[in-house]
Write a structure and sequence with these properties.
alpha+beta; 7 helices; 15 strands; globular
Length: 352
């Protein structure tokens, strides 16, 4: 029987509809096989650095013998959603609010080779990507106009990617995104009531129950949220309480890379290389708006950074758009089971 499930973190409802239950192969997204651009035409390939905006940050190649000086490279998006230049101006437009489009929009190229994806990287290579994420958050927080840095990855055209070469992006904004603000509020309210981190309570509960845990290590856990909005939605959280990805040490990043790589390879085999979105949710920049002090006095205790990964294998229809609910035909318990049983080397599905 279907259930309406509520998530106390996102403050959203989802309908879990097992009567519509679909097996992983029924989610496959048809489309042309991936054919990366030749190195000569790939703007992100080594040797084509002049086809992008000037380099902002890079990490040296782990194996220079492969012909690239860099392992990870960061530069401003040529067609940015927000621009660094200008002052933040806030004004009312009748009943509406408007903030000038000041911010930053950057591209993080995750490896030199055009033919590889994040799931193809080694743990050491993926750690370098996470190091670049951390470095860019730290640097952009020096700009007191910016209040949040959102890092995300669009894999595949159905997920919004326009270039095949493995890359992620960041957009820094002068306001805290609505979904993050809701998470912050939920975590703050929980801490004020119970003096405990909401996410730490979630981790403890899910590890004890086990049904929605897909991957578990000594340092991290990957789980399907109780009120998963979409099929195979998975969160990766550090077990040790940590509110800010920018403060993660190299050991934390390695632990994250191990679980993320495992999850990506399981999904690739289970859903035959699906398009997906990957998002990092972390604490906001520590400086509030001038004249509008925000109470971040307990942020170190009440928030918990995490990654959210959603394969793009379903679409929103009229009910979802009109109600704000989502209909998920795969219960998170079932999704977690499929992932636990999936081949961690990314081979095809072998479920019953």
């Amino acid at each position: 029987m279907s259930e309406l499930r509520y998530c106390p973190i996102t403050n959203r409802w989802a309908i879990i509809a097992p009567e519509r239950r679909l097996r992983p192969l029924e989610f496959l997204v048809p489309g042309p096989s991936r054919s990366p651009a030749s190195p000569e035409l790939d703007p992100f390939a080594p040797g084509n650095e002049d086809l992008t905006t000037p380099e902002i940050f890079s990490l040296p190649a782990l194996d220079p013998a492969k012909g690239s000086r860099w392992q990870v490279r960061v530069f401003a998006n040529r067609f940015p959603a927000l621009r660094v230049e200008g002052e933040v101006v806030r004004e009312g437009v009748g009943l509406n609010d408007c903030v000038s489009g000041v911010g930053a929009h950057e591209v993080i190229v995750e490896c030199p080779e055009p033919s590889r994806e994040m799931a193809d990287l080694s743990v050491d290579e993926l750690v370098q990507v996470l190091v670049a994420w951390r470095a860019r958050i730290v640097d952009l927080r020096r700009d007191t106009r910016l209040r949040y840095v959102l890092i995300f990855k669009n894999r595949g055209t159905e997920a919004g990617a326009s270039i095949d070469h493995a890359h992620s992006q960041l957009i820094a904004t002068p306001i805290i995104p609505s979904l993050v603000a809701q998470e912050l509020k939920s975590a703050r309210d929980h801490f004020r009531r119970k003096e405990r981190c909401l996410f730490c309570d979630l981790i403890q509960q899910e590890v004890e129950l086990g049904a929605r845990v897909a991957i578990s290590t000594d340092s991290h856990v990957a789980l399907a949220p109780y009120a998963s909005a979409l099929p195979f939605e998975t969160w990766i959280l550090p077990r040790r309480h940590a509110h800010d990805f920018a403060r993660a040490d190299d050991g934390d990043l390695r632990g994250t890379a191990i679980v993320l790589l495992d999850l990506l390879r399981r999904l690739r085999g289970l859903l035959q290389d699906p398009p997906y979105n990957l998002v990092l949710h972390t604490a906001p920049s520590p400086h509030p708006r001038p004249g509008h002090p925000d109470d971040w006095s307990t942020i170190e205790h009440d928030y918990h950074w995490h990654l959210e990964l959603v394969p793009r294998i379903s679409r929103r229809a009229g009910f979802e758009w009109g109600s704000g609910y989502t209909i998920n035909p795969t219960a998170p318990e079932e999704a977690a089971r499929f992932l636990r049983e999936a081949d961690p080397d990314g081979a095809g599905p072998s479920y019953s």
